[in-house]
Write a structure and sequence with these properties.
166 residues; mainly alpha; Tetracycline Repressor, domain 2; 8 helices; 0% strand
């Protein structure tokens, strides 16, 4: 298995016919954001805004959309599918997000970085469910830029701002 696929995530992506490996896409996106000088900086091209825009672009690609919707729907109705999806999300999505959160504060707590990644996931999964599964208006028909500008600052706060009780 490792000889042909390298990682469990690559095997999952191949089995699900995903044309990309999410952790590789996220890692590349975070590297691009950091090299552009936006890491940890709020503003029009903030990390959260770029993440929302990237996710919407990936989710709406023809190759990904059907698989993505199938995984979401299955996870909502089947505990074994939810377990599988949870493991995939944890490894492929939350890991790179936690690493990005931690890179802004290398001396920071790994548990806090994982928590930050988890709360980013709540926002993004809520967006995906609202837009693609429930098709709630006006979210379902909103433009990428509008959603990114609206949700991005929230993700920036989740990644770098104060969290918890203050």
């Amino acid at each position: 298995m490792h000889h042909f696929y390298g990682t469990k995530e690559r095997l999952f992506a191949a089995a699900m016919s995903l044309p990309l490996v999410p952790s590789e896409v996220l890692t590349a996106a975070f590297a691009e954001i950091a090299s552009a000088g936006h890491a940890g900086q709020p503003g029009p091209a903030g990390t959260g805004e770029q993440l929302v825009g990237m996710a919407l672009t990936v989710w709406e690609s023809t190759e990904v959309r059907g698989v993505f919707l199938g995984l979401l729907r299955s996870a909502l109705t089947s505990e074994p599918a939810a377990d599988m999806f949870r493991g995939f999300i944890t490894d492929a999505i939350l890991g790179p997000i936690a690493a990005a959160a931690r890179s802004r504060d290398p001396a920071g707590d790994a548990d806090e970085a994982a928590y930050r990644a988890g709360i980013v996931a709540t926002q993004m999964l809520g967006l995906a469910l609202s837009r693609y599964v429930l098709r709630l208006e006006p979210i379902a028909s909103a433009g990428h830029a509008e959603l990114a500008a609206t949700i991005g600052p929230t993700l920036d706060r989740y990644l770098t701002g104060p969290i918890g009780a203050t």
